Amino acid sequence: GEKKPIMAWAAVSCIILALVLTCVGQFGNSWLVQDEDSVETGDARISMGLSDIVADCTNTQTSEDSCIAYYYTLFAEDMNKADQEVLDGQGPTEPKVKGEIENYCENIYSITISFAGDDTELRSDAGEFRENCLSNDSAGSLTGTFLWLGIFGALVSAVMLTMATIGKELPGHMQNYGRISSWVSGGVILLGAIIWTFMKYNFDDNFATGSSFYMVIFAGILAVSAGVLDMLDKRE
Question: Which of 60, 51, 110, 61 minimizes the C-alpha distance to 83?
């Protein structure tokens, strides 16, 4: 007549799913996605992760090769070197071009400054854009750190909750702290996502929050729920 630890196994499932979703969100490139209304017909579609930026040149109005070459150069750490690679036929051929947000911000600034000349207003606008653009890189770096901490906490919590459910002892009775670990990891994951929300720059509302963000939010809620389910478990 012993009760089955249904709640406990549900808690284990929640924390494992939270771990997987956080990992996917950590490496996802859809934290910011270009708004449909801001994408002109035939243009590449831009999306951003925590540190990377991606341009999708599929079905662009200009030739796909020209689009790939343009964004490969724009996203490169060294534009001159990337431009030469394209001229030599050594550039990428995949329609999705990936680079770092920091490189994109710095290259846009450099291009604008080169055309600005003595136009102080344009130079000032370029500097302001650079600062706002780089805030996405800073937000991604900080949020990424929080997510790594959350991933580690969720992994530890998954081990603790599993051991407690199957009745195995860990050194120092650590299996009894699984629910606390899941609450902490969930809180850290949610905090990382919230920090990103306040620090990001969406380029004059031309970008919208993407699926990777919501995935991480859901992961944080699942991790907290895992602790609650474990607390509600009635196993002897």
Answer: 110
CA distance 214 to 185: 17
Bridge partners of 54, per DSSP, are 47, 98
Both tokens of 48, joined, read: 């951003």
DSSP 43-111: PPEEEE-SSEEEEE-TT-SS-HHHHHHHHHHHT-SSHHHHHHHHHTT-S--SSEEEEEHHHHHHHHHHH
Amino acid at 187: G
Lookup: tokens for 139: 């937000």
pLDDT of residue 4: 55
> 3-state class of 209 per DSSP?
strand
Dihedrals phi, psi of 202, to nearest 5 degrees:
-100, 25
Question: 39 pLDDT band (50/70/90 cuts)?
Answer: low
Residue 220 CB neighbours (<10 A):
27
d(CA 67, CA 44): 7
| Residue 112, H or E segment | helix 101-116
Q: What is the pLDDT of residue 233?
A: 74
What is the value of pTM for the model shown? 0.86
What is the C-alpha to C-alpha distance for residues 119 and 106, in angstroms, rounded to an integer? 19
Q: What percent of the chain has pLDDT over 70?
A: 92
